[in-house]
Amino acid sequence: MVQLLALGIFIVTVVASSIRSRVKTSDTELKCRALPGDTAWPSKTKWEQLNSTIGGRLIASLPLAAVCHDPYYNEKQCNYLRENWDSPKIYVDNPTTPMSYWFQNSSCDPWADRKLPCELGNLAEYAINVTGSADAVAGVKFAHENNIRLTIKNTGHDYLGKSTGKGSLALWTHHLSSIEVKKDYSEPWYKGPAVKFGSGVQGAEAIEAARDAGLRVLGGACPTAGFSGGFIQGGGHSPLSGAHGMAADTVLEWEVVLADGTLITATPQQNEDLYFALAGAGPSTFGVVISATVQAFPDGPIGGASLSIDRSGVRNDTFWKAITYFQKALPDFNKAGGQTAFGISGIWFDLKSLTLPDYGNEKQIRQLVSNFTKGLDSLGLKYNLTISVSQTYVEHFEKYFGPLPWGTMPVGGLTSGRFLPLSVSEASPEKVVGVYRDIVDKTQINLASTAQDVSINSKRKPVASNSVMPGWRTALQTIFMESEYRSNISWSEKQAVESQLIDFAERRIDSLVPVDTGAYLNEVNFSPKIDWKTQFYGSNYQRLLDIKHKYDPDNVFWATTAVGSDALTVAGDGRLCKG
Fold this sequence. Notes:
The chain is of the alpha+beta class. The strands form 6 sheets. It has a 7-stranded antiparallel beta sheet.
């Protein structure tokens, strides 16, 4: 049968009857994962057997934009896609199409001529709609036994292409959506309120469920990111991080399917090495996370502030002097337990949100931001300032990052990032701002960063030792660089955007910080020019590699820049091969 889903996307829920013609086994096939057309590619019968095993939840992949191409063309649905191509809502319910335009690789988008073929390109060949651990076990075993590339997709909110791969079998975890509140969780490593989230639960769902129980959990600023999936596994900074640390610091337990198909639990005292690795070293590396149980905190008032400056009519030197005042104010915001989310572009400065947990007094908040606003006043700058006190975290989140469940953050752009150590900014905030000015004024790149103190102290400490990148603990802020573009530009134009991001912007940031400063694993770039072992994992890397070899010696799980990923490479035809 064929099922018509939202947006008019056709998802074939039984295995396609036509299998590509087979060719003689080659040396390449022997050292690479199989692709359709290879003699090693599973037969139609094998795919049907897998489909039967998982209760008919095998999906034959079809690109999201197929409705813009013959023979699936539908004018109304295609126009809808074009209007919403940069919105996360069209990707979340799709089993194989990622949000990153780069990893869609122009193989099928809504801008091309409808008569051009719509090809899978980098997309998975099939996906399993994972509704429980048994589905994940079946998928892992099938991929391993048949030498098929395995990928894991939740919402597709992924800057590195970890959730997609040519010829792969995707585990679509979006429907692992269970939520269980545990008001009296009690184990040696923690006693208190907790919540268990299936790995398909999105950030908006997580914070609302906690709110309904009178609690807070550390979801990210993007409400469509999978909570227990890539977000926490990559470390997870939150508007609440200034008070409670990284989201990975709050993990109590993991349920995970390993490369051999077994389902285990990892805690600070059981499979503790795997617990360590999953809490910060990134997704699609050590296993398929089925759920995560996390520490929760009592809800209460949240102070908030936002401030914007329109650059039109403002002298450039004056504008960047204002940014210097802002850079000097960040340490005070961090000391107050806040998280600051802000952006700088060629047309504006936007302090999107200053989030201050347990601040219930507007006068207190206004005093905190006064050094910054006095600096702006001294320059004669006009700005829009908002101060608020919300009674719950969700109320604050809706005000500054909403509306829920989708938020306002666009998708598709290329990104890169680094940490800015507090010591570097304190030594010369003017030098830091000078680099920002070079990037923003000389390119189309925007800065969209956060600042928070997640150093470990008596009030803000991890449940147990974890693999959060050490550079987080001494950083003033994350520097997040993004080049926004639509997917209708040519591939050569996309490559030029990537080159500008890495060869200019990344190099300018490199001039500011020590080489081992590090970066936030979830907001980086995939370029081979980046020393990813040092920047993404730092001093944790060798320990993480040992854990990878222990739990996944055959590299069943592989993802770009993941721990141990240099054991395999993607060939020119998209094959995943050894060495």
